[in-house]
Design a protein that fits this description.
The chain is α/β, with parallel strands linked by helices. Strands 3-2-1-10-9-8-6-4 form an eight-stranded parallel β-sheet. It has a two-stranded antiparallel ribbon with strand order 5-7. The chain has twelve helices and ten strands. Helix 4 packs parallel to helix 5 and helix 9 crosses helix 10. Helix 1 links the parallel strand 1 and strand 2. The protein binds 3-O-methylfructose in linear form and magnesium ion (MG).
Length: 344
């Protein structure tokens, strides 16, 4: 635990083999059990799970097998002094999810998606977390005419309601993303996610997870997206990372592209006591060029960047900021922030 009481998490996909759409893996696979040890060694507190990280080949297993394997995973977490931050149903790899999950045009595919997400809710309960993250990967279209977007939005709401109804303790954090893998995604921003949540059968149990890079890909400022959710008590988790413009989803180390943009994310999180609300999730990817034995530095660097920025945020003279706001001297305010970041 750091002196600021922040807790940190990442997901197993953040230690990976380096394959991209144009080339094969460049590093050996690391077993999940080993990733837990690395997570602990790097000073993190919690793992982020996809349902099948806890129960591999989930679709082929009985309810009893699912329970046994998830409870065994919980025991392993306990042994290491770790927790599960959330469980996310992986709704984008199975053949039944090729055309989307909750918004697939085939009713059998939609039914599969709801059943799969209910299994993820069970696994979350066995791992002792009530938080489910819904990244709506393939809920969208490659071409506008392929789906009815009004109906699709209603189907997403019906799916959320079905899950809230299935588990009365479950909280759902929707993770918006405007594109990739789909060209056009149905819940592209936190505004969309929270509007949907407000229509749910139990709005108090629907919130959001904001990923910095996803906000940038939507042409929005991540700190403002976080502020919007925080204003309504709806920011339940974050995936901090960085992103160089409107390109592929890069998941760069936190702060490695735009230090001021991440400074403002840390600032809004810290001013709103995020350490009392949720965990600092880092959704960062090692560069493909990184040798295997050096392929966790993106995680430790991102964590220490976050903590350094907390220090800088807290060292900024807020009284001075108030004076400069009152004087409308935003050029001097600009310099105040710049000089803090440059270590004046
Ligand atoms: C996709 C993502 C995902 C989600 C994860 C949890 C690989 O752009 O960011 O990470 O965060 O699947 O829902
Ligand atoms: Mg993410």
């Amino acid at each position: 635990m750091n002196k600021y009481n922040y807790k940190f998490s990442f997901g197993p996909w953040n230690i990976h083999e380096g394959a991209d759409p144009f080339g094969p893996p460049v590093r050996p696979s690391v077993a999940f059990a080993e990733k837990l040890v690395i997570l602990k060694d790097l000073g993190f507190d919690a793992m982020q799970f996809h349902d099948d990280d806890a129960v591999p080949d989930l679709d082929t297993k009985s309810a009893r097998e699912i329970r046994q394997q998830a409870e065994a995973m919980k025991a392993r977490l306990d042994d290491l002094g770790l927790t599960a931050e959330f469980v996310a149903p992986r709704l984008w790899e199975h053949p039944m999810t090729i055309d989307g999950a909750f918004t697939a045009n085939d009713p059998a595919a939609r039914a599969y998606a709801i059943e799969r997400a209910k299994k993820a809710a069970d696994i979350a309960r066995y791992l002792d977390t009530n938080l489910m993250v819904l990244w709506l990967a393939r809920e969208g279209t490659y071409l506008r005419e392929a789906k009815d977007a009004v109906r699709a939005t209603q189907q997403l709401l019906e799916a959320v309601d079905a899950l809230l109804d299935y588990d009365p303790d479950l909280r759902i954090a929707i993770e918006p993303k405007p594109n990739e893998p789909m060209d056009l995604a149905y819940i592209p921003t936190i505004g969309h996610a929270l509007a949907l949540g407000m229509q749910a059968s139990d709005p108090a149990r629907v919130g959001g997870l904001i990923e910095s890079a996803h906000a940038v890909l939507a042409g929005l400022d991540p700190a403002d997206e976080m502020s919007f959710a925080l204003a309504f008590g709806k920011l339940w988790s974050v995936h901090l990372n960085d992103q160089n413009g409107l390109k592929f989803d890069q998941d760069r180390s936190f702060g490695s592209v735009d230090l001021r943009r991440v400074f403002n994310q840390v600032r809004v999180l810290d001013e709103n006591k995020f350490w009392e609300i949720g965990m600092v999730g880092l959704d960062v990817k090692a560069l493909r060029t990184q040798p295997p034995e050096l392929a966790t530095k993106h995680l430790s660097n991102s964590l220490r960047t976050f903590l350094r920025l907390v220090e800088i945020v807290r060292s900024v003279d807020n009284q001075k900021i108030e004076e400069l706001r009152a004087a409308r001297d935003y050029e001097e305010l600009d310099w105040l922030i710049m000089s803090s970041l440059m270590g004046a």
